[in-house]
Amino acid sequence: MNPEILRANEKYVDNYTRPDWSEFTNLVIITCCDPRVDPYGQLGLKNGQAIIIRNAGGSAVDALRSIVVPQYLLPDNNCEIAVMHHTDCGLSKVTTDQIRELVKSGNPGRDDIAAMVDNMEFHHIQDIEESVKNDVRYLAEHPLILKGTKLSGWVQDTETGKISKVVEAMALS
Amino acid sequence: MNPEILRANEKYVDNYTRPDWSEFTNLVIITCCDPRVDPYGQLGLKNGQAIIIRNAGGSAVDALRSIVVPQYLLPDNNCEIAVMHHTDCGLSKVTTDQIRELVKSGNPGRDDIAAMVDNMEFHHIQDIEESVKNDVRYLAEHPLILKGTKLSGWVQDTETGKISKVVEAMALS
């Protein structure tokens, strides 16, 4: 990382107030790691207020471990989980098979790499509203998500920053 | 999510300038989803500047899919990857086995749930510097991480906000 980042961290430390767990709103957000997605800004959240899980596409399947940990470790495990996918996502422009082919064609003769990617599910997004609904349904039906957990699914428009609710549900298992 | 968050999003939209991919610094940060970890503030980053992957503990193993996607999909795949774990992490206070027992004791008689958690690796952290080094080594040696990718490992002190470099490496495969 460049020296600017280290200087920025020095400034941050000078003005730092450690957030307290009492500021936590019980909100768990699952969203994409895309640089243009800023969950703090978009939702007016401050450091300390939400658990923010980010992965390529904002996949709830990929996030499962990171949801189970706070749901079972936090003293008050009454979390609310919001799945948020965004327009213009890289994973809406390719399929898992196409990513596998890209990796294989970049590594000719590497049977080990071919075997690895053929075993990986990249969670591509065919239709953004459907992918949000599918992810919320996955959590609603998953036995590891605590029964009664409030769930919601959102789309964020990367052009405007606007979030729109697609679905609401409750964990059933 | 509460109405305050929706009002905050309306304000955000009013003042939104869509970040451009030209602002991306090629930095990929893997860090924890803990509410007290704020990668933007800590590193002085603006929306658009970094890919930010977050999961419980900041596990590089868990983040693999989300690294492969940008490394192979972005036109300039010369990413630099920083793994950042933090002090006082929930996953440094338990082991994978203890989480499995917690889940099982919360769901007596549910053999399906017991089988699921017994198959899950929770990536607990025994020693924070060691866990950062192990994750950087995992990426350095992984055949799916592009050869020559710059890697670094960091610890963030949750008490002070300060980041400290633990290790640097380069992807070898």
Question: What's the gist of this structure?
Answer:
Chains A, B: Its EC number is 4.2.1.1. Chain A is an alpha/beta fold and 173 residues long.
Q: Which SSEs are present, and which pair or pack?
A:
2 copies of one chain form a homodimer.
Chain A: H1 3-14, E1 27-32, H2 39-43, E2 50-55, H3 60-73, E3 80-86, H4 96-106, H5 111-118, H6 128-141, E4 150-156, E5 163-170
Parallel strand pairs in A: 1-2, 1-3, 3-4
Antiparallel strand pairs in A: 4-5
Helix pairs in contact in A: 4-5
EC number (chains A, B): 4.2.1.1
Keywords (chains A, B): Kinase, Lyase, Metal-binding, Transferase, Zinc
Organism (chains A, B): Mycena sanguinolenta
